[in-house]
Design brief:
The protein folds into 2 domains: 258 residues, no CATH class; 44 residues, no CATH class. With 317 residues, it is mainly alpha-helical. Helix 2 crosses helix 6 and helix 4 runs antiparallel to helix 6. The two termini are 19 Å apart.
């Protein structure tokens, strides 16, 4: 790890120290292979998108599955970015803190550096979505363009997850502990997203403190979930089309008639109108509220990271 001389820190202000550490992290990005988070994140996004992206923003079911998978990618990228960055150099931070390091400057430098990483990952993810043919709405909900709305959501979701991982990295003392905690945090985020698994009681309240919940709500609102057709009912009826009644197959006849006369799309749209979700309303107010919730969470995580690292001098190792 690159150390900063105590003399260069003792008489520097917080802003100057932030700049010093930001330059250090940028050098580490180049010379210590921290850039590897970009291709790893790209591979994960590509695999997930090519599997579930075909029906994203096309049908309600495809949007449910696709946005859930995309949020998984964002949370994974954010966690992987910073889960080890502080604990792997905790001894260095401890020495430099005693030499005059401001913890707020150190965390602020990490926040700026991680924001740059998240921005690059967002650009890569959007490129992959484009290559995969994901039909992001052209018209935006909050911004003029849908891809800009989606990009902001992906960025804030990834950055919020990044700040949660940074907080954990400031709390734990070893990289082994950090990597042990990460899978549990990931599972928690996915199970309590509230969009893919049915929640009730206390579990339904827990979703409001998860990054995945607000990220998925935002993407579904941007994708105009409530205006999309639902195919589950049609597919269920097709599965029962060969049932005979008095020697005939009335359900098959109805389905054939519906399809031959061009009523299938209308039927899918009608079935979708009975499967709307108030959390997915496509309004600027709703999308903005989801973004605000994510921003509040990341501020809380960043503040907790500073508070936790303030006690670094009490380490007894």
């Amino acid at each position: 790890m690159t150390e900063i001389r105590g003399e260069s820190l003792r008489y520097k202000g917080r802003a100057a120290q932030t700049g010093i550490y930001l330059k250090k992290f940028l050098r580490m990005f180049v010379y210590q292979s921290d850039w590897k988070v970009l291709p790893i994140g790209a591979i994960i996004a590509a695999v997930v998108t090519f599997v579930v992206g075909a029906n994203m923003f096309v049908t309600q079911e495809g949007t449910d599955m696709g946005t859930f998978a995309l949020v998984c990618v964002c949370v994974w990228n954010g966690f992987f970015n910073s889960i080890q960055v502080v604990c792997r150099e905790r001894d260095i931070v401890k020495r430099e803190h005693r030499a005059g390091l401001h913890i707020t400057s150190y965390v602020a430098a990490h926040m700026l550096y991680q924001l740059i990483l998240c921005l690059l990952q967002t650009m890569v993810t959007l490129l992959i979505l484009k290559i995969a043919g994901v039909k992001i709405p052209v018209q935006g909900t909050f911004m003029p363009w849908g891809i800009l709305d989606a990009g902001i959501t992906i960025l804030i979701t990834t950055y919020a997850a990044d700040m949660m991982a940074l907080m954990v990295s400031c709390i734990v003392r070893t990289t082994t502990t950090a990597m042990t905690v990460m899978p549990f945090l990931l599972i928690f985020q996915l199970v309590f997203s509230g969009g893919f698994f049915q929640l009730s009681g206390i579990a339904d309240k827990v979703k409001y403190v998860t990054i995945s919940h607000w990220g998925m709500n935002s993407l579904c609102a941007i994708g105009r979930y409530n205006e999309l057709p639902m195919v589950s009912l049609w597919n269920t009826l097709v599965g029962f089309k060969d049932i005979e009644l008095f020697g005939k197959k009335p359900l098959k006849e109805i389905l054939v008639y519906t399809e031959q006369n061009g009523y299938r799309d209308a039927f899918l749209q009608w079935s979708g109108s009975y499967h709307t979700n108030n959390a997915y309303v496509s309004t600027a107010e709703n999308v903005g509220f989801n973004w605000a919730a994510l921003l509040v969470l990341l501020v809380i995580f960043a503040a907790a990271a500073v508070i936790a690292l303030k006690f670094v001098d009490r380490d007894k190792r």
